[in-house]
Amino acid sequence: MRASLLQIAVDPDETVADRRERVAELVRAERDADLVVLPELWPVGAFAYESFADEAEPLEGPTHEVMSKAARDAGVWLHAGSIVERDPDGPLYNTSLVFSPAGELVSAYRKIHRFGFDKGEAVMMAPGQELATVRLPALTLGLGTCYDLRFPELFRGLVDAGAQAFVVPAGWPERRRAHWTLLARARAVENQAYMLACGTAGTHADVEQAGHSIVVDPWGEVLAEAGAGEETLRVELDPEKVTVTRDQFPALKDRLLGLAPPRTPR
To answer: Where are the beta strands (DSSP E) in 30-75?
Structure first.
């Protein structure tokens, strides 16, 4: 299975509409891939909070239209990163879109863990409430977004739902890049699954992006890692390696769930 991660540079001097069209052409150029992955909030920028309300769009808005056509033209499964989604009832969500090779929207994952603590995304966007998986012919994907990477219980839930690979688009800042690579490898190792983590490049809203998109195999080996600038990673994934790793080192079978809380000392 061939996967391409498009590490997109978010240039504040490029309009959102122009970036959509440019990225669509990059997707079409990956017609030899089976799966193409884009970063988090690449149309507007993950830290461009002041633009969220103005650039919010419905689920089937302009990004959906352009990316659906790009997936269909290229004949690929496309994880189109995420958008600022405006729900008809009012809330904003950080929502990832996944398209089939026919251009059909097969999943819309609303980010569960919002970053910012008491500002930014954490107060401007509502949290998602549901885990999301997508069944491809070769692999079942589990979906997460950026800050989700810090919460291992989400990925355990995805494994329980059948995930064999994780796709995590992100707008991760350079100042915490060491955490990005560490957590991506940790989530792969502990769940014996592929990790495809795709970040943005450039600087937007004065926040330098980490770049360094990364693909990790179920044993924790790094198959490919990007640099800091705009770049495309192309990797070959062996779906059988998930099964082999889990059979040869069956750690997941030793999970102990539902343990009682610690007793209060007398």
So the answer is: 35-37
Query: What's the confidence (pLDDT) of residue 264?
Result: 83
Catalytic member of 40, 55, 57, 85: 40
What are the structural domain ranges in the chain?
2-253
Q: Determine whether 40 is an active site residue.
A: yes
Of the residues 55, 57, 121, 146, only one is catalytic, namely 146
Which pLDDT value is given to residue 130? 98
Pick the closest to residue 2 from 29, 31, 42 (CA basis): 31
If you search the block for the tokens 């052409």, which residue do you land on?
Answer: 25
pTM (whole model) above 0.90:
yes
Instruction: Find the catalytic residue in 57, 85, 111, 198.
Output: 111
Architecture in CATH for domain 2-253: 4-Layer Sandwich (3.60)
111 is catalytic: yes
Secondary structure, 3-state, 143-180? ECCHHHHHCHHHHHHHHHCCCCEEEEECCCEHHHHHHH
Would residue 230 show up in a list of annotated catalytic residues for this protein? no
Looking at residue 265, its pLDDT comes to 81
